[in-house]
Predict the 3D structure of the following.
Amino acid sequence: MTEPTELSTSNSVKCIAFDLGEHEFCVDIMAVKEIRGWSKPTPLPHSPAYVCGAINLRGTVLPIIDFAMRMGLPPTEPDENYVTIILEVGSQVFGIVVDAVSDIVTLDFDTMQRPPELEASVEQSCLLGIIARDDSMMRVINTNHLFPRQVAAAA
Amino acid sequence: MSSDPLDEIKIVFFQECSELLEELEDGLYAMRDGEETDDTVNAVFRAVHSIKGGAGAFGLDVLVSVSHQFETVLDKVRSNQLETDPDLLDLFMRSADKLQDLVQAAKDGRDPDASECDELVVALKAYESPGEAAPPPAAPAAAAPDENGFQVAPLDLDFGLDDDPTPAAGNWQVTFTPHVDLYQRGNDCCRLIGILIEMGATNVRLTTDTAPIWSELPAETPFMAWHAELPSDVPEADIREVFEFVEDDCDLKVEAAAAQAGADDMGFTPTKLDILGDDEVEFTPMKLDIDLDTPADTPAAEPEIEAKAEPEAESKKNEKVETAKPVAAAPPKRVEPKAEAKSEASSTIRVDLNRVDRLINLIGELVINQSMLAQGFQSLSMPVNQQLTDGLNDLRQLTRDIQDSVMAIRAQPIKPLFRRMSRIVRESGEATGKKVQLVTEGEGTEIDKTIIERLSDPLTHMIRNAVDHGLEGPEKRIESGKEDTGTVRLTAVHRSGRVVIEVADDGAGINRKKVREIAVEKGLISDDAELTDSEIDHLLFMPGFSTAKEVSNLSGRGVGMDVVKRSIQNLGGRVSIESEPGKGSVFTISLPLTLAVMDGMIVRVEDQLMVVSLSEIIETIRPSATAIQHLTPTQSVILVRGEYVPVIDVGYELGVRPRLTDAGDGVVLLSETEAGERSALLLDGILDQRQVVIKGLEDNYGDVPGVAAVTILGDGNIALILDVDGLLRLSEQSRLSSAA
């Protein structure tokens, strides 16, 4: 309960909203290092299925996650039109592949509803909560659980 | 980083300490080798003295007491009251070791280990001749200006420390009043005065009599005048020549001595005395450096403040006179070594290692970017533009030059490491009761700083082994017709892009019969194994091998050489033994120059490019279609000159593709693992051999089995650097799991 993303729930938070299929997700803008076009990663052996591989970001080697697969959706087959969001969580830097970045939104985290705990699956622990927005539903992702450290060792 | 300012000062102190300790050791070695000069003793004294000064400031009492006693004895040596002999030097060495321990303890925030200290202090005290009243440490420094001129002389040369600067009759009085133009043309008064000082100027003073009060002081108008006194035997023409280039921009008076009252001058020396006056011990060269650097600015900026400070300083000044007077009389020649030392000091800077690493990263990126750019232009298929081609070529050359220069920043001479080893030799010699001397060669050999750090443990182990197992005891040595003192030789040389370090002893050599017996006994080899001499020697590197009959403090826990070998391999190095019975053994370590870059072979596995470190490859083989024999569906071997070597299919182990069925499609890299076991890596092709920049995966991802690190290729893509040992373990695992 001490994740930094939760501490900031007391007021409104700026988030980057992105699309994945017909779903809308968003991530705290403070965790976003940069947004760049998709480039083909080098596969990493013995990695979990949702890890596409590693890319070189100006000298830093960082892993790329297929966000759709991480959320339990069918794998993305990305091309140049897809977008990689580079996130910095703690000292760890990694990228997630998404369909497109749509907007920068300001969300009131007080209105966020915890995800139903019926199925406490991995996919859900990656969700911080849901915020209703007009007629759509914005899923706020929990960057801390998105890419557990030493994922390779765990796999 | 802590925000406590005292902590920051402490960090600087410890950094300085390590430099001073190095200087101290250097000096002691020079003394031992008979290269002793006044300067050496002075340097040693100064090092101990500075450590003591700093230690006092931080309340490190034990450190102070040891260094104090050390210093006192050193001072005796310095003033020729005490002759050095091997025993005394040995004591000095041990004291230096102790200082190092104490500094380390203080750095780690541990309580100093006070044992031995008392013993050392007593031993050192014994060298103070009886009869004589033990002088306070600083008193001799002051009383012996000739020896000490190195340290203290520059102070007087600043601005006349002398209470009564009435010049001796016949001496030249030089008055030099610079105009504003002199400064505007970029001239530096300090330099000119410095030349005068080299010519023997004394009583150098600065006056600012003509300066208006602070509030009315025009910022850009100088009001300073310099006065100096030169010996009468310096020709007037020489003095004038010093100012030749600035003669139009200043008023220069050179006249034979006419009494001038100097005591009232608003020189700022008194202020300095105020700072320094409490303790003569403060005459450290560090402070003096500051003095030399600042005179031009300080008076111009703060004449009023200086003037106010004077009365307070007056009382201090009087106490100081006795110290200062003989100093002022110090022969001018004494200044020269100081000036040299200073230029040497300013030629290095301390930089945070992280900054250098960041720079190296950026340069690595630049190199990659440059080659991407070049590739991009090639694929444009534009008509050849000479200007553009030249520009690109220049860029390539420049980036390569920059890369080399930046890599050189990380390279450090191996000397400190060798110095540390001399201590190990000394200690292990004492512990085993053997007489040992260490001979080092190639101390200036440069190698990556990280490698130096990580080499310390394995090298320590090897040196201890050499003393403990390699060398015989004195009696036995004499029996076999050798000198009773054993020699351990430590050499470092650059050889074809690598650094080769040798640890050689002139001991009995490896007892191959015994080594073989032990290996059989421990089940490391079979009873009837036929081994060459060299193979027997290399049994020492097998895990769990130890020839020592009993476990000694020094070595012989049986974790020795295999750990050594592993840590050296982790640095991308190799280690080997040569031994000749009765003559001794030589351990040779070959290391890459840097950890950031390595020579790699670019290989292809399916459609992926991967890198294998050249240091791991023994040879490459293009196998015939039938060369690889399948023992079981999951295990295959290749026959290499009569020996069956297990084959590791890299593509399969890394999950890139299924097992290669036709060996004729692939290429085999023969490699040797930690335990000296050979294995053959089966790959799809070899493309190139080049230097690659090593990037860690751990920071953002974690360990990947079978992958040591990654690198970035010319097209900006990532290639995996294979970990041969990891691959071997992987293939064993997959064999076991498929067998189960």
